[in-house]
Amino acid sequence: MSGASHTQNTQLSEAKNDRAVGADEEGVWHDLGVLDRLEANGRAVAKIAGHQVALFQTAGGLYAVNNRCPHEGYPLVEGTVKDDCVLACNWHGWSFDLKTGKTILGRDPVKTYPVEKRSGRVFVHIVETPASTVRTEAMAELAEAMAEHDYERIARSLCRFEMAGGTYEDAAIWVLNWSEGRLERGFGHAHAGLTDWISLAGADDELRFVAFLEAFGHFAWDALFSPKVVLVAAATTFTAEALLAAIESMDVETAVAICTAGLDQGLGFSDIKPVLLDFVFSHYAGFGHPAIYIGKAEEMIVHLGQRVEGVLCRQLVRYLCLAAREDLIPEFRLFGNLLENPTALSGGALVAQELSGTSVRQLLPKVAASNGNNHEKWDVLVASSALDMLKFEETLQHGIEQSIAQNTGWLDFTHAITFAEAVYTHASLNSDLWRSGHLQQACFIGRNAKSLSVNTFEQWRVADVLVFFATQKATLFDMDAGEYIYGVHRLKLITATERLLGIVTIETGALLVAALNRYLSSGLRQRHPARTAFQARASVTREG
Ligand code: FES
User: Fold this and answer.
1) Ligand 1 center to residue 207 CA distance, Å?
2) What is the CA(221)–ligand 1 centre distance, in A?
3) Which of 4, 234, 312, 514 could pair with 460 in a Cys bridge, judged by C-beta atoms 3.0 to 4.6 Å apart?
4) 439 Rama class: left (phi>0) / alpha (psi -120 to 50) / beta
5) Cβ-contact 234, 264 below 8 angstroms
6) Pocket-forming residues, ligand 1, beta carbon under 6 Å
7) Among 67, 86, 89, which is best to mutate for testing ligand 1, by the most ligand atoms less than 8 A from CB?
8) Pocket-testing residue among 65, 72, 78, 108, ligand 1, by greatest number of atoms within 8 A of Cβ
9) CA 79 to ligand 1 center in whole angstroms
10) Is the sign of the CA dihedral 357, 358, 364, 365 positive or negative?
11) Is 0.85 surpassed by the pTM of this model?
12) Tens-digit pLDDT profile for the chain (544 aa)?
């Protein structure tokens, strides 16, 4: 904008005493009188029945639009008019068709108002947009924003939807259904995050807005990098055996079709869940995520209602089909053998300090043969996992010239805790699952054995647990953890640890909180340029 036009704009008048002069079926005409400033400057702003309206008189006609730019709210009356009917906002360059309000450059459209000049007097027709229309438009904007991962626009559209009477939960249901055709692996961290964000926000409306925004952003981000999913129709019948067999054979299409058939015949999550758990506790797979995700899905249904049961079941089935079968890796094959062939030996009680630092091959038989009740064994394994976090040799995060098998990071440790919470959730309802749960906990502890150093418990011990959790949870709502995957793991571990405190012994609880304290206070390595290049060269060279 030129200096001259800027001076003009700062002198723009406001019509403060407009008169409503007649209502029709849709709205009310307001008489603004003769607007000298509009005549002199070609623009003016007026407050009319709670609306701030920018008026433009150009060679193309007289136009009225909302004065607040839909991008960040700066005054459009200060904008630049081009070609008689295009208005460019001078703050970030969005431009609008003054006739229709449609965006020419930018995203959200601006609201327009019918405007007329009668005998030199300006009349503006104020039409209150029905709330249902606002909600429909907001959801259309949300769809566009999700497709582009436009975080600020996701926030604006969600806000408009909620202010027009929509609920965050309804928007979340839409997001889940939207994600089904967009997330190749089905269920993922974004789902788990959505569940935990909703729980964490509770009833506080401001926190709820942040929580749903962050969760939706995560879905949008993951969808950006995922191939589209071709959804299959159910052309089969449901049996639990057939579903389990399809998951076992990693036959995604068949498994999802069988699941869909079951849902079509009226089955719900509670009917499908036993099949999923049967698979999950028969394998060490997906780095513990399958057990975690089933619990998060069940919790999400409590938050969002039965309407999400179908999509969550199908996404879980897809995820389980595609989960890495780690129990087939040589290091973990003993898991399957011990699960199928329980040992008759008695190996005594487990001791956390003795388990930490023990390899998978030594640890699995020890846990399989151990004495003690299920809860006690689980507690000791939780304590050992927390101890591992306190002994993690953090410098290993930064190694460069090493094999891929030597890569170690904080998330290798945090999953032992979130998985342990999932084991408790499922096994406390079905004691048959404890045995597999214990062995899988041992797999986590054993795989981290080579990455430990000295115990830092005293350094990270937390004196006031209540204050600690209150502070950490508040921090989550304004964290800057980089990519969503890192933020969501902070969220998941805080959530899991707080829940575990109500279940574990006092000693184990102290270790858990100290471990969480250390993790949250530590620098989390997110990118490894030099290591990635080194390992890529080593790997590609071996390809021959
Ligand atoms: S505020 Fe108008 S383009 Fe940014």
Assistant:
1) 26
2) 24
3) 514
4) alpha
5) yes
6) 69, 71-72, 74, 89, 91-94
7) 89
8) 72
9) 10
10) negative
11) yes
12) 333 333 233 334 555 557 777 777 778 999 999 999 999 999 999 999 999 999 999 999 999 999 999 999 999 999 999 999 999 999 999 999 999 999 999 999 999 999 999 999 999 999 889 999 999 999 999 999 999 999 999 999 999 999 999 999 999 999 999 999 999 999 999 999 999 999 999 999 999 999 999 999 999 999 999 999 888 776 789 999 999 999 999 999 999 999 999 999 999 999 999 999 999 999 999 999 999 999 999 999 999 999 999 999 999 999 999 999 999 999 999 999 999 987 766 778 999 999 999 999 999 999 999 988 999 999 999 999 999 999 999 999 999 999 988 999 999 999 999 999 999 999 999 999 999 999 999 999 999 999 999 999 999 999 999 999 999 999 999 988 889 999 999 999 999 999 999 999 999 999 999 999 999 999 888 889 999 999 999 999 999 7
Query: Residue 72 CA: which ligand 1 atom is closest?
Result: 1
Alpha carbon of 68 to ligand 1 centroid (Å) = 9
Nearest CA to ligand 1 atom 1: 72
Q: How many Cβ atoms sit within 10 Å of the Cβ of residue 111?
A: 15
Give CATH for domain 240-326. 1.20.272
Question: CA 86, CA 102: separation in Å to the nearest integer?
Answer: 10
Residue type at 480 in one-letter notation: D
What are the tokens at 252? Answer: 């995604």
User: Which residue has the CA at smallest separation from atom 3 of ligand 1?
Assistant: 92
Residues making up the chain, counted from first to last: 544
Domain positions in the chain: 11-126, 131-224, 240-326, 370-531
Kindly give the distance from the C-alpha atom of residue 66 to the centroid of ligand 1, in angstroms, as a whole number.
13
Q: Pick the closest to residue 531 from 394, 393, 398 (CA basis).
A: 398
How far, in Å, CA of 149 to CA of 144, rounded?
A: 9
Q: How far away, in angstroms, is 189 Cα from ligand 1 center?
A: 33
From CA 450, how far away is CA 393, in angstroms rounded? 9
SS3 label, residue 105: strand
